[in-house]
Amino acid sequence: MRIDGNTESPRQSMSWLHTWASLILGWLLYAIFVTGTLSFFQNEISIWMKPELHQSINRKDQSQQLQSAIVYLQQNAPNASAWNINLPNARSTTTDITIRGENEDPRARRGGDRVILDSVTGEKLQPRETRGGSFLYRFHFELYGLPRSWARWIVGIATVLMFVAIISGVITHKKIFKDFFTFRSGKGQRSWLDGHNATAVLALPFHIMITFSGLLLLMYSLMPYGVSALFPEGRLHFLQAQRAQLNGETIRSVEFASSSQKLDSSKRNGHGEGEKGRLNKERSRLEVKNVPLADLTAMLAQAQKLWGDNTVASFNIISPNRQNSEVEIRATYSESILNRAIVPTLIFNGVTGELISQPQQLKISFPIGIYNTVTVLHEARGVDLVLRWLLFFSGILGTIMVASGLILWCVKRAPQQQKQGYKNFGYRLVEVLNIASISGLLIATAGYFYANRLIPVTTENRSFLEIKIFFIVWLLTLLHAALRPHRNAWLEQLLFGAILFCVIPLLNALTGGRVIWSSIAEAQWVVATFDLMSLALGMILLFIFYKVKNHKVAGIHKTKKNINLESAAMRGEGQ
Amino acid sequence: MIDFFLIYFLCLLGFLHICFSMSRHQQQVFQKVLQEKYNIWYLITGYSILVIALALSIYQWGKSIGICYWIGTLSFAALLILWLLSYYPIHLKLVNQFSRVIILALLVFNLLA
């Protein structure tokens, strides 16, 4: 029942909700979708933005890559508490090493000194200072320059509205199955609605997954009280407890203070000897002797044979050159997404070279299984390249869905605005914000890539400057959209964006990156794909530009100018 | 990659059959409405092919990842049909033949390799 007393069908009320819930934060959602979709290839973007790394080529001979890393480590950090070696793979070109100092926790998740090696020559590479793809990644859930919890709340609210939009959209849609394959082109509002529906319905499972998991990933920010009540020491303890539970341990919340290591060692020793094993380990750490490291290439061969297509990704060598040393080898892809990207792992004794433990089955409860499945997909953790591309293109469909919805709002109201002869403030605001977000953000992203290559490498604070340029360009597109007539603003921004993206491969070659034919010939797909995708995006923008340019304003959609022209022509005929 | 294309073309073929079962699209593709009995035949075959694609992708990648592959592939199989149906409806008959040939070829290749 509405205020005016008329009855309203559920579909009508949902349609109202869908329209306004989507509009209010639609532009933010579009920005989240664009930057989030790009984040599926965060690594690749970062590598493209560090052209110093393009010289390193993945020759696919892992034992040689491993050897040159070990040579470097033995020369430069023989006494480290741990070495972590990430071999080059389909998503990186270099050998990335993390060295942990003598007094550091060898199994820490963060910290340590990072060194990047040319995977062929073993030479140390020094990339430029840039936030790379991680800026876009951070932006998609923490925005920029706002206090972290504020930003997460804003993104959280936008995500809730997205969820509302999905559900109300499904209810509003009249014939999901009947119109499943239907797209009627060239029919104005009808076509926009069909396009909006198609991108929404065809990738509906993706949209639900990405929105729901987005909420789950933010849940500790949005609903912190349960965790803080149970774990007053902080969230870290909660996460440790969660991990321990996954590993099949019973929770003893008091002991979590130094638990991560303890649990790991007891797991490894097994047979209830955890406590004893830990004591032994601590004793042995006091009286370590220097012992040469076992042959790592033999372990590599064993892992390669076991995992086949799933290539070896990384080596974690704990206490290298000492009698208590251990080597953990990890594969690239996980075999299931029910656990949070726990990839197949082998653990060897670092002195004798014998295999200590095989991968073990984890116990996963139903809710944790759901949480893991959707969040692992959201973050594309440990998923292979084909699935990553599927997620990426689904992300693009989501982006188009949001954009077409925003445009549809205007298209639907355009006739009425034309009839009254002037544009309402609200309508004009939506028009301007649509242009500034849809084409403006793409231009700003291109601006970020250009800034990355054109700001001199030695400039101080250059990564900050890059981000500054991103926002300045974005602001300029907003000004441009506000000052120019609607149609011109679209055309100019589309053309400008198209040129920017089409020129990116050239920019790459001219500013120290690997030129496209060379990156293709050397199978350095990380770099080549970035260039090719930029070119493709540029072409698509150019195509849209011509579509809009040749678009005849039909029948009732006549603009004032056209009416004037037509009446002038008619008068001319009459004379 | 080959397995992915096999799943993709199976989904394409499945959706094509479902599409052919709808009278509106029959008009677009065949320029006439088919007899009622064909509708049901196309519908059942279409869904069966999709189920076969699901089974194959679970066999290939395991339960959790296989289902994700299948759902992701479905979106883009349907998208191709949507695009062709809007701009080149008559060519869908060719696409139908083509995807059968591709599926056969990929199956033979998989068995031999």
Describe this structure in words.
The complex is a heterodimer of chains A (575) and B (113). Chain A has 575 residues and is an alpha+beta fold. Chain A is 60% helix and 7% strand. In chain A, strands 4-3-2-1-5-6-7-8 form an 8-stranded antiparallel beta sheet, covered by helices on one side. In chain A, a hairpin with a 5-residue loop joins β7 and β8. In chain A, α2 crosses α6. Chain A is globular. The C terminus of chain A is likely disordered. Chain B has one domain. Chain B is elongated, with a radius of gyration of 14 Å. Helices cover 88% and strands 0% of the residues of chain B. Chain B has 5 helices and no strands. In chain B, α1 runs antiparallel to α3, α1 packs across α4 and α1 packs antiparallel against α5. The interface between A and B is medium-sized, with 26 and 27 residues.
The stretches of 5 or more residues of chain A where confidence is low (pLDDT under 50) are 250-277, 555-575
Structural class of chain A, by secondary structure, is alpha+beta
Per DSSP, the total helix count of chain A is 22
End-to-end separation of chain A:
59 Å
Distance between the termini of chain B: 14 Å
Q: Assign a percent range to the helix content of chain A.
A: 55-70%
Biggest interface: A-B, 26 and 27 residues
Gross morphology of chain A is globular
Order of helices and strands of chain B: HHHHH
Average pLDDT number of chain B = 93
In total, the number of strands of chain B is 0
